[in-house]
Every structure is written in structure tokens, then in C-alpha cells.
Amino acid sequence: MASHLEAAGIHPQQRLKLQCEYFNPVVEDWTPDCQEEERWQRAECDVLLYVITPMMSGVYSIAEAVEDSIKNPEKTVFCIKPVDEIVDLEAANRQNFVLGHPRMFTEGQLRSLNAVGEMVQRNGGCWRTWGDLAVELNSRIRYPEEE
């Protein structure tokens, strides 16, 4: 039986488990110190990867992606992950989601997000679909079990 992700077209080879250093700005309490750390990370990192998911509760990262596509187009990558499976019970409870069931964007939300992706691309940034990004990154990363 296919999982919710597979039923939505996200296959196992498209699930990312990156084996590189990265900064994830998602925190429970967004403090001025957190904001300062994120600004520093955005200035110092080699790649600005924005993965927009249905689990997001805010939209500021979309504005950041557009800003970075203007200021730092050579290192900005914008990606829409159309389906998110809820596997964290604490997060599910916090956001009133059902554990094990997928969250998906509506058609209207996807149209808007695709328009943002096109904008990022027009600004010189990179816009990838989730499947393309997963295949591209996973093909470049050697996992310990493959060595």
C-alpha cells in the first residue's frame, strides 16, 4: 500500500536526507537573537535554499526568498514542497494537524507559489520543483552507506 506521500507523487527517492551542514531557522519562539542569527547565516552561507511547505504557519520566508533572489540571485534556490506528511506528534498537536495525514496546498495557493517561483527565476535565482530538487541533490550527495 502506498503512503500518503507516494499517493501524492512524492516517491522515496525524492525524500531528502541531506548529509551537509545547514541552518534551519524554524524555532518555537522567534526572538531578536534568532533574527540576528538568521541574518548572519543568510549573509555567510553558500546556498539560500527556501523550501516552502504546507506546514508553514507564516509567509515571511517567501518575502525573504524574493529579496534574496534580487540581492543574491546566484545562491538563491526556491522550492515548493506540495505535500507534507505529519510525523511529529508534538508538532501535530501544536498546529491541530492529524498525525500521519498529509497537508497539501490548495490549487489557488499553488498558483500563487508558482508565480513566486517564476519571480525568483526572473530575478536570476533558481526555482525547482520538489521532485527535481530531491533528485538533483540526492544525485550529488554520497551517503555513508553508499561509500
In short:
By secondary structure, the chain is of the alpha/beta class.
List the keywords.
alpha/beta; 147 residues; 3-stranded parallel sheet; two-stranded antiparallel ribbon; 6 helices
Q: How would you characterize the overall build of this protein?
A:
This protein is globular. Helix 3 runs parallel beside helix 5. It has one domain. The chain has a 3-stranded parallel β-sheet with strand order 1-2-5, sandwiched between helices. Strands 3-4 form a two-stranded antiparallel ribbon. It has 147 residues and is an alpha/beta fold. The chain is built from 6 helices and 5 strands; from the N terminus they run H-H-E-H-E-E-H-E-H-E-H. The protein starts with a helix and ends in a 7-residue tail after the last helix.
Beta-strand content bin: 5-15%
The total number of structural domains is 1
Q: How much helix, percentage-wise, in residues? A: 40-55%
Order of strands in the sheet with most strands: 1-2-5
Helix count, DSSP H or I runs of 4 or more residues: 6
pLDDT average, as an integer? Answer: 76
For the largest beta-sheet, the strand count, sense and barrel status come to: 3 strands, parallel
Secondary structure category: alpha/beta
Shape estimate: globular
Quick one: how many beta strands?
5
User: Could you tell me the radius of gyration in angstroms?
Assistant: 16 Å
Distance between the termini: 31 Å
Low-pLDDT segments, ≥5 res: 1-14
Order of helices and strands: HHEHEEHEHEH
Topology, element by element:
Elements: H1 4-7, H2 32-44, E1 48-52, H3 60-71, E2 76-80, E3 83-85, H4 89-94, E4 102-104, H5 107-122, E5 126-129, H6 130-140
Parallel strand pairs: 1-2, 2-5
Antiparallel strand pairs: 3-4
